[in-house]
């Protein structure tokens, strides 16, 4: 069996072989073929978004995705929610000695497919190898460059009192799929791992979005708490309106977790003026990734920096920033 | 003692605390303070170089540097050798559970200092935490963006027969320092870890460089073999002209290694027309990082893709692409 050895990361013959046999083969494009220490890029505009994310998800392959797909979509989504068109990604691999090369090949194929789907190019890369017991098969960093053409850029600092809060579908599916895998819990748990750039483009082209963010690690709870603090507003959520699958609710009860703190990898929170909320909702529903979209709450003047949940009976509870101690390596 | 826990990587309260208490404190700038999923950047030009590198060096602290400094200078140097002015870096951290927070703080301070020295800004970042035994305290990815103003861009594909090959000083110092550390060998071994952007700017402003590359992992041997293949030329090296410290030669003999395959972290190989070689050498020597610069060889028509070493007695031997099996985690 072909295994990754320490020499594969030493910059010599075996590194070159990996580059030729895997990276150039599956990811090759005019930039990667330049073969220099970096890629020379001519951007269509000089206003860009630059983002980075490392991926250490365990297990590496899960229902609905794998670490390769996640690494591409994760950074593509981070660029898209900033109002940028994702164009170029870098790929940094940290491999553990003993990783099977066919396994690496499958992950690279998955990266290539995800790049093709989202229209981004992997233009520069790096591979390091660490000794057995100093890693966990594969860790991936992707950094990305997207270009901005939109007149306004959504930011966590721009949510305004009166704005409505929308989400494009069921929350917590990625976190639930990973946890179910790890705990050997059977059931209908599938990660929502998906590229959001197309759906987001559709929204941004037509509506004046104030804030947009993908509630990945830390889930809806972390994302809205960040926004409430950045924008100095209160955020009211409507319990009955938040789409969560029944099996995810059950799993959370079983594991003692809050579904609002579970990670998503194909969801976007959109905050914009109340007047256009219904129209945006209808637009989102026309897209395959927005079929279960919902208006889930409203931005308030007060209490600043606080997210709270209201139910139909008038009950209220604060949704705090999660601590996260039960949710390691979710992405 | 304050330790990194898995919850520090879960995107909740403890992640936010790390961001505020370490990253914003030491690395803070107008872009990082945006606090969104990526940084919005207005570049002075739309022609850029994009590069990525992960750093897994062991030990993390070594004579002449540490993993933080290395992570900044490594990517800055990759951008500089491509003819770009380094402007922006991303910072991706993979921390091992149990890392002492004061240790992380020292590394972040070192990153901040290196960024200041080189005039780059850390504009976006990400932190993940893996379980004890699934990492080695800290792995760092930096990706970087530099802008190109030069009329020509050096590339590994542009070396021409007749060109002279220069290097800015002693080779193998970084590799020797790391290996001496690991093997507990005492002696005067200090990494050459340094930012090359200033020296390179001085050269590029004044001379028509064909090829420029920093011989890091895999050393001079890997770098010149890559260039010989990319440019379809032969490369002749002059043994007596290549600056290597006596103690590094001795260490290589002791460990059975080739000094040409040892990593450098503050060296640049410059290939340009013979007519200007002496003048470039003099210019390099005016710079603190070029005091021991030398002309070490010449590009030949033949044999294509081959690097060979000639000595004063007419002896010749081929310098092959290193395999690298003895040099893991050198950067």
From TrEMBL, chains A, B:
Pfam families: AIRS (PF00586), AIRS_C (PF02769). One of its GO terms (biological process) is protein maturation. InterPro entries: HypE (IPR011854), PurM-like_C_dom (IPR010918), PurM-like_C_sf (IPR036676), PurM-like_N (IPR016188), PurM-like_N_sf (IPR036921). Residues 35-148 form the PurM-like N-terminal domain. The lineage of its organism: Bacteria, Bacillati, Bacillota, Clostridia, Thermoanaerobacterales. PANTHER family: CARBAMOYL DEHYDRATASE HYPE, HYDROGENASE ISOENZYMES FORMATION PROTEIN HYPE. Residues 160-309 form the PurM-like C-terminal domain. It comes from Carboxydothermus pertinax. Belongs to the HypE family. This is Hydrogenase expression/formation protein HypE. It comes from the Bacteria.
């Amino acid at each position: 069996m072909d295994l990754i050895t320490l020499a594969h990361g030493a910059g010599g013959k075996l590194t070159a072989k990996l580059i030729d046999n895997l990276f150039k083969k599956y990811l090759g494009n005019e930039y990667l073929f330049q073969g220099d220490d970096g890629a020379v890029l001519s951007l269509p505009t000089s206003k860009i978004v630059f983002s980075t994310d490392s991926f250490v998800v365990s297990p590496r392959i899960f229902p609905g995705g794998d670490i390769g797909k996640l690494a591409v979509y994760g950074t593509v989504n981070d660029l898209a929610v900033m109002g940028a068109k994702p164009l170029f990604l870098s790929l940094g691999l940290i491999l553990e000695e003993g990783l099977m090369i066919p396994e690496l090949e499958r992950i690279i194929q998955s990266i290539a497919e995800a790049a093709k789907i989202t229209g981004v190019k992997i233009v520069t890369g790096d591979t390091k190898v660490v000794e057995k017991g100093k890693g966990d098969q594969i860790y991936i960093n992707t950094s990305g460059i997207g270009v901005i053409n939109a007149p306004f850029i959504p930011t966590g600092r721009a949510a305004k009192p009166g704005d409505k809060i929308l989400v494009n579908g069921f929350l917590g599916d990625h976190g639930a799929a990973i946890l179910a895998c790890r705990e050997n819990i059977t059931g209908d748990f599938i990660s929502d791992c998906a590229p959001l750039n197309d759906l987001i483009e559709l929204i941004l082209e037509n509506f004046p979005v104030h804030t947009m963010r993908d509630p990945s690690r830390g889930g809806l709870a972390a994302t809205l708490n960040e926004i409430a603090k950045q924008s100095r507003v209160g955020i009211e959520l409507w319990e009955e309106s938040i789409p969560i699958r029944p099996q995810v609710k059950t799993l959370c009860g079983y594991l003692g977790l809050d579904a609002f703190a579970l990670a998503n990898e194909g969801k976007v929170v959109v905050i914009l003026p109340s007047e256009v909320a219904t129209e945006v909702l209808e637009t989102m529903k026309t897209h395959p990734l927005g079929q279960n979209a919902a208006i889930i709450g409203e931005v308030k003047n007060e209490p600043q920096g606080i997210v709270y949940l209201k139910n139909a009976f008038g009950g209220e509870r604060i949704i705090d920033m999660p601590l996260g101690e039960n949710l390691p390596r979710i992405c």
